[in-house]
TrEMBL record:
NCBIfam families: major_capsid_P2
Protein name: Phage major capsid protein, P2 family
The organism of origin for this protein: Shewanella hanedai
Pfam families in alphabetical order: Phage_cap_P2
Length: 345
């Protein structure tokens, strides 16, 4: 299919508007994003996906460095004889390293034709802008939760969750603080009756409570900022069990809301979070860094591929601020169902 005249006209207007916003003559040639527009681009990304605004996203000057502390989780109040009290604010952090990161949001000519005919020129521009911004923003989380390696040539077919684009938060903790990740076999069995087998739990509340009390540092266990991130496979199983048992409207409402609070902690199921993973942490503990001055954009109609491509290049990476503020059960070790029968001794 060829690019329709109306779609072509609106696409030209979109590129002209983008060029004006970034203060460049031609967006089809790669250009550097200036500092004021860096802030606007970052704000647009955070606004497009709500969960991104809850974690720590920062611009840094160096490709390698110490993790930036956004706060100290210990006590800051006391007294000192003949002086003023102060506590160590923990300025020494863990290291981070940023890598080349390249995003490309594609819209085919066929889709452009539909968008051009479905509304006004302003609506077309909004669709184009949202397509790029939301995809870039979602990929930050997709890679953050699933990234395990940094390939020279990433393979989106073999690694659809960005596993080979960068090392995400879970992988960083696995490598640098492995004791914070539960690798024993865990069995979530809401149908369990009687005495539970080793590693078997009847409720998510019990799993989260034990995870928090065994692996989260004592100074953080009662921190009101602590939350639980839980996979959709686990919440769906728990909700189904509760709905099947509920015989009153109030009980059904409680079942529908059970994933809002688990084990006494606010609960979230973020985009692209692995379905059988559970993580207890502070949201501010999850960091994404972009090197200041490295953002580059390009927006071009590629006739050979019959599509328009919005491109975004930068140096980017992930970090954890406090390892003892992150505790997780790896999805590979989480099982839904009964634990196997114990072998006779």
């Amino acid at each position: 299919m060829n690019l329709t005249p109306l779609a072509k006209t609106q696409l030209i207007a979109y590129c002209a508007n983008m060029a004006k916003s970034y203060g460049v003559d031609d967006v089809s040639q790669q250009f550097s994003v200036t500092e004021p527009m860096e802030r606007q681009l970052k704000a647009a990304l955070l606004e497009s996906v709500r969960f991104l605004a809850l974690i720590t996203t920062m611009d840094v000057d160096q490709i390698k460095g110490e993790v930036v502390k956004v706060g100290n989780y210990g006590i800051a109040t006391g007294r000192k004889k003949n002086g003023r009290f102060f506590s160590d604010q923990g300025v020494d952090g863990h290291s981070y390293e940023l890598v080349e990161t390249d995003s490309c949001a594609v819209v085919t000519w066929a889709t452009l034709a539909v968008w051009a005919n479905s509304g006004t020129a302003n609506q077309f521009m909004q669709l184009m802008s949202n397509n790029a911004t939301v995809r870039f923003a979602l990929d930050l989380l997709r890679i953050g939760f699933n990234g395990t390696s940094i390939a020279i040539d990433s393979d989106p077919v073999a690694n659809p969750m960005g596993e080979d684009v960068n090392k995400g938060w879970h992988q960083i903790v696995k490598e640098k603080a492995p004791d914070q990740i539960v690798t024993d076999e865990i069995y979530f069995n809401p149908d369990a009756e009687g005495v539970l087998k080793e590693g078997e739990y009847k409720t998510l509340d019990a799993i989260v409570t034990e995870l928090k009390n065994s692996l989260i540092h004592t100074s953080l266990r009662n921190d009101p900022r602590l939350v639980v991130l839980v996979g959709s496979d686990l919440t769906a199983t728990a909700q189904t069990k509760m709905m099947n048992l509920a015989d009153k409207p109030t009980e059904r409402v409680a079942a529908q809301k059970m994933d809002q609070n688990i084990g006494g902690l606010p609960a979230y199921t973020p985009p692209f979070f692995p379905g059988k993973r559970i993580t207890v942490t502070l949201l501010s503990n999850l960091h994404i860094y972009t090197q200041r001055g490295t953002r580059h954009r390009k927006s071009e109609n590629v006739e050979d591929r019959k599509q328009h491509e919005d491109k975004y290049w930068r140096q980017e990476g992930y970090a954890i601020e406090e390892f003892e503020g992150y505790a997780s059960i790896d999805e590979a070790n989480m099982n839904i169902g009964a634990a196997p029968a114990m072998e006779p001794s």
